[in-house]
Amino acid sequence: MIKVGIIGGTGYTGVELLRLLAVHPQAELKVITSRAEAGSKIADLFPNLRGFVELAFSEPDPKLLAGCDVVFSATPNGVAMTHARKLLEAGVRLIDIAADFRLSDPKLWEKWYRMPHACPDLLSEAVYGLPEINRKRIRGARLIANPGCYPTAIQLGFLPLLEQGLIDPGQLIADAKSGVSGAGRKAEVHTLFAEVSDNFKAYAVGGHRHWPEICQELECVSGRPVGLTFVPHLTPMVRGIHATLYCRLTDRGADVQAVFEERYRAEPFVDVLAAGSHPDTRSVRASNVCRIAVHRPQGGDTVVVLSVIDNLVKGAAGQAVQNMNIAFGLEETAGLNAPAVLP
Amino acid sequence: MIKVGIIGGTGYTGVELLRLLAVHPQAELKVITSRAEAGSKIADLFPNLRGFVELAFSEPDPKLLAGCDVVFSATPNGVAMTHARKLLEAGVRLIDIAADFRLSDPKLWEKWYRMPHACPDLLSEAVYGLPEINRKRIRGARLIANPGCYPTAIQLGFLPLLEQGLIDPGQLIADAKSGVSGAGRKAEVHTLFAEVSDNFKAYAVGGHRHWPEICQELECVSGRPVGLTFVPHLTPMVRGIHATLYCRLTDRGADVQAVFEERYRAEPFVDVLAAGSHPDTRSVRASNVCRIAVHRPQGGDTVVVLSVIDNLVKGAAGQAVQNMNIAFGLEETAGLNAPAVLP
Amino acid sequence: MIKVGIIGGTGYTGVELLRLLAVHPQAELKVITSRAEAGSKIADLFPNLRGFVELAFSEPDPKLLAGCDVVFSATPNGVAMTHARKLLEAGVRLIDIAADFRLSDPKLWEKWYRMPHACPDLLSEAVYGLPEINRKRIRGARLIANPGCYPTAIQLGFLPLLEQGLIDPGQLIADAKSGVSGAGRKAEVHTLFAEVSDNFKAYAVGGHRHWPEICQELECVSGRPVGLTFVPHLTPMVRGIHATLYCRLTDRGADVQAVFEERYRAEPFVDVLAAGSHPDTRSVRASNVCRIAVHRPQGGDTVVVLSVIDNLVKGAAGQAVQNMNIAFGLEETAGLNAPAVLP
Amino acid sequence: MIKVGIIGGTGYTGVELLRLLAVHPQAELKVITSRAEAGSKIADLFPNLRGFVELAFSEPDPKLLAGCDVVFSATPNGVAMTHARKLLEAGVRLIDIAADFRLSDPKLWEKWYRMPHACPDLLSEAVYGLPEINRKRIRGARLIANPGCYPTAIQLGFLPLLEQGLIDPGQLIADAKSGVSGAGRKAEVHTLFAEVSDNFKAYAVGGHRHWPEICQELECVSGRPVGLTFVPHLTPMVRGIHATLYCRLTDRGADVQAVFEERYRAEPFVDVLAAGSHPDTRSVRASNVCRIAVHRPQGGDTVVVLSVIDNLVKGAAGQAVQNMNIAFGLEETAGLNAPAVLP
User: Pick from C15, C52, C339: which is nearest to D19 by CB?
Assistant: First the structure.
């Protein structure tokens, strides 16, 4: 059994990670830390875990964490980087579900996250944990930067087309819609039920922190500069991201449906739907799957890709478990093979 | 592996049953019938099952069903009774998730369901499948009447008090609130999103079909006539039932918290919360658990019991699987031990 | 034109009051105060008011408030009482939408609201602003305590039966369900969208602040001690309260439908539905109406009353405007006669 | 008073039209027809109208309709065209809220709406009722084609840029999200609450009926062929459309904010927000306003326009009333000047 520690864990990513680990056949939760909730039983905060998780939150204790095989950081941005060096030195693998190790350029990180980086020297070691691109590098990795939720849905949608050089990387549009759990479990007015329900809006059109992350990774794939317009929206649902992607085909003869099917044929968590389909977010609710459909409206040269994930699973905790599975050489789908909950 | 057939299965109970059976360690789906969808792949109708269920719906075929060990009927009321005799004669166990075998008095059934009963002689054999009361009779039973969703939540809430004779059975009130999936997957105006969302209402105050079912079973438990006022409400959520129960304590010295804890200590799917708690429906979403809290406001002689279930799981498909497990001597929790999905 | 001031006004009651006053034919908004938002334009906080309200929030300034004819206090509990004496001395009428003047016994107030009362001597002057009971006393009143949202829905439902002495006042049950806006526009975890959506729960079963308010007023009506069990619930909708009331008829021959119809025939904002009806909360959304239906299930001696209001209108801002209209001798329905918004 | 008739009126557009007309100072509802509901009181179907509308639905009677000054057709597509000629001959103005007169080319209409057109000769007379473009032609018009909901939001967003020739009309993208009431009040599975709630999906990516309508009108404005990719989505809310529009600036020096502000300065129902804003759909709920914000992310040459309306008001019934007001020379805002309902 792999000994697991969690830093943080009082947010939605935390409870989702606990839900998945609670029934993971090869993982055993050893410690979960929270300054604010130290001493409280986890199942008192999250009653869905009653009978599954007996642990209480504890104060962050380096020794306890050092005794784990892997530590997940499910904290706000800027916390994992303060733990990273010690954990790695103790031989513990670290999977950061926040953003501390996602951008390889510390200057860029500091610009977008507005704080100095605590260990810029570790950035080059960190592996960006999108298995569909980096599976080999994730195997055995010590430090994994779990991708953001929007970046996961958007990259998986553009990936096959950029890899094959079929589209103009300078004119990418990602119109993404997220459920409200993506904003986290913080007391804030703008995510109150009475603010968000029966309502829809865009936000951060001027610049969202996931924009540089997506650009960085798509440029790796494409090998060319990427011009991306990214508009996130808040939609009145709890879970789910729906990314609607627009790009311009440079090779009009390409069979885009075949390109997607071939690219993802062997992927356990990417499901390409039949031509003409429209995936809905509930079809992946509580599951680690990304479902994708690809369209060419009126047979023109604009390609529309529809990509859905559960932001808390494939967009956060589930992908983190997938990364753990790969890093430790387990079955990649271990603990992740329950069907989505519908309706 | 137990060979499983499903009659019906295009509704919400059906898809939930499929979701649970798809990962059940000892069940194998052999056949699922639907006249309307015969020939369609199940996963085309319910894309959450892509990769889990390869079967297509087929025309109802007595021979195929007769080759199963157990058949679930997930149809509208009045269908299971037309299949029952043949299935039993073929040595197949039948678990009816609809209402055909719930009322032991065929006259009463015909009054509330407005059709003649096709096999009234089988009613006496049918076991009412609430394991917390009838576990022993369910073992080995050939014909199981799976309880209704409201009746499950309400009976589990009144049960300990009635068994101990602590309350007046003549003055029971059950104010119950259901998610909209309880109304099924039928095209009807009153369950459209734009009718139900941001809205709340009572319905069937004059008389709901679950009323005689609840009364029948509570009278068995109590041994005395029951006076029950039952008001169901529709609440804008997909899954979940919250029953708020009111009754009058006849023994003012009773320790009602202890009575509940003791009654359900050994039950795998009933969870009594600490005194002063308020269970929420999401704490059981997609799980087979019933969570219960009990209160005596102002220390008076009115007892308030709060009982929550997922109407599609403990209120339908999950309890049906639990009944299958018991009937076949499997581990009672087999296929039912994933934590609830929260948020 | 009546010169209107508002203390507070950054919450949901505030924005609703502004929406109503913006088109009130005889009211003119002169000042609205908020320490936190002083200097901000109202329409920047609440963009639905763009083009309707040009004012900005200002620091609380006794002189400006003293120049008004009426001041509404739309603040948290405990604020209005600190302004009351000065306003009354300046000849300004005060309508407190919070709870400061609702309980006539200062001891009781201090017990439930956990702070000393700033002006207990004014409690006897304050008129409880439920027009259906106190219309005459509201005319010309200087100090009006606007009722709570639950108390409004519940009192209007019990009123006709208690006035006529038809039910046992010692056995009243009020099972009430509220939309989330009733919890206010405060940054709190438990009212986040991702906590409340697709979820249902009871709260404060042990004791809610509206309980003594309801008891006090029902005892006035009944002339006898009242035994009330009150269970509030949170339902995933923005607006609306649905109160389901249970009581025991002492006069079995009573025609309860006629009693309700007669009692409310002349009331502009109480609408008694036909026998057998089920009012839904959306039928009063954004309107000042209370709709009521009354049932006797199975013709027994339990009466079930269904009473719905919009918690922000008849349960708060709308009733406050109604009280202003009455106090100043205006048409009672002025500014309040738009139909509910459905769907 | 203008005598008003309504054909149809049992759907959401109908009830919204009734809500607006009920308090319109210069309109008087004379007749409302519905074959299915003939004889039923309107207020029985839509209880929000109790006390406001006393009429009952009647069988379609040409004589009664001929006695009106204006008739609104709030029916499915294909009905208004069967009434048009007789009404016009009787001197009645017709405002069709459905699509019968929106496309000027009958061949195109027949292709997209899959039925022959009953009066193609009237198409040239019909005025497309978007007042912000066609106000002069609407004055005195006999036959008005009320625009679709998506087309209204999308055209108002592209209009200023196309009129000024600032963008490439060949590369327009409209990613639009609609509340579920846009699908109408028909009994269908795909708009059930349990299908749509907590879910998000695109639909009709291959081709939606509003696409040719938008293209036709934008080509009029632009004077050049338009290349439009239009992707509609269903979002779990009752009312509201949010259109997110993407286009490429050809004049990089343009001050797009100023262009929008100037274009709509005198428009009573188009509100341009300050630079950097994000309108939310609830800010126009139940009101006839379109709110717009314009962005240039990273200062690049992609312009992002955010445009929100209430699909039932500015996208249907409200715009129809606005058209009536203009056609009859009334104050354009008559009956349409209540603030949006928020929250």
Answer: C339
Tokens of B228: 């029950």
Which helix or strand (DSSP H or E) is residue A20 part of?
helix A12-22
In DSSP terms, A270 is beta-bridged to A290
DSSP structure class, residue D316: I
- Is B331 a member of any domain? no
Query: Which of A185, A187, A193 faces C197 most closely, judged by CB atoms?
Result: A193
Contact D308, D290 (CB under 8 A): yes
| List of chain B residues whose C-beta atoms are within 8 Å of the C-beta of residue A264 | none
**Residues of chain C whose C-beta is under 8 A from some C-beta in D?**
12, 15, 19, 22-23, 46-52, 181, 197-198, 238-239, 271, 273, 279-280, 282-287, 289, 291, 337-343
Contact at 8 Å (CB) between C243 and C290? no
Which entry of B68, B119, B149, B290 is annotated as an active-site residue? B149
Minimum-distance CB partner of A197 among C189, C193, C195: C193
The reported pTM is 0.97
CB contact under 8 A, C181 and D338: no
Contacts of D178 in chain A (CB under 8 A): none
In the predicted model, what is the mean pLDDT of residues B292-311? 97
State phi, psi for D137 to the nearest 5 degrees.
-70, -25
Chain A interface mutation, best of D180, D201, D208, D210, highest count of A Cβ atoms under 10 Å: D201
Q: Is B247 a catalytic residue?
A: no
Rounded CA-CA distance D25/D28 in Å is 8
Q: And the tokens for A271?
A: 């499901």
Q: Are residues A109 and A258 in the same domain?
A: no
Residues B104 and B203 in one domain: no
* ipTM given for this complex: 0.97
Q: Which residue of B has its CA nearest to A337?
A: B23
Alpha-carbon gap, residue D341 to D286, rounded angstroms: 6
Which active-site residues of A does the annotation give? 149
- Do D297 and A205 make contact, defined as CB atoms within 8 angstroms? yes
CA distance D215 to D207: 12
Note the pLDDT of residue A291: 98
Answer yes or no: do D210 and D116 share one domain: no
| pLDDT at position B164 | 97
Q: What is the DSSP letter of D230?
A: E
Residue D340 lies in a domain: no
**Same domain, residue pair D171 and D61:** no
Residues C155 and C284 in one domain: yes
Do residue A73 and residue A175 come from a single domain?
no
CB contact under 8 A, B191 and D196: no
Rounded to a whole number of angstroms, the CA Rg of chain D reads 19
How confident is the model at residue C144, as a pLDDT? 98
Clarify whether residues B227 and B303 are in a common domain: yes
Asked if D197 lies within 8 A of B197 by C-beta distance, the reply is yes
Contact: D200, A237; criterion CB under 8 Å: yes
CATH code of the domain in which D210 resides: 3.30.360.10
CATH number at residue A33: 3.40.50.720
Q: What is the DSSP string of B282-318?
A: GGGTTS--EEEEEE-GGG-SEEEEEEEE-TTIIIIIH
| Domain co-membership, D112 together with D156 | no
Question: Which of chain B's residues have a Cβ under 8 Å away from the Cβ of D282?
Answer: none
How many residue pairs bridge chain A and chain D with CB atoms within 8 Å of each other?
A: 140
Percent of the residues in chain D that have a pLDDT greater than 70, as a whole number:
100
- Residue B31, classified by CB atoms within 10 Å of its CB into exposed (0-12), middle (13-18) or buried (19+), is buried
Both tokens of residue D285?
């709920």
Total domains in chain D come to 2
Burial label for A10, CB within 10 Å (0-12, 13-18, 19+), is buried
Instruction: Return the pLDDT at D229.
Output: 98
Task: Decide if D31 is inside a domain.
Answer: yes
For residue D69, what are the domain limits? 2-125
Among partner residues B175, B199, B306, which is closest to C237 by beta-carbon distance?
B199
Say if CB D108 and CB D43 are below 8 A apart: no
In 3D space, the residue among A332, A339, A312 whose CA is nearest the CA of residue A266 turns out to be A332
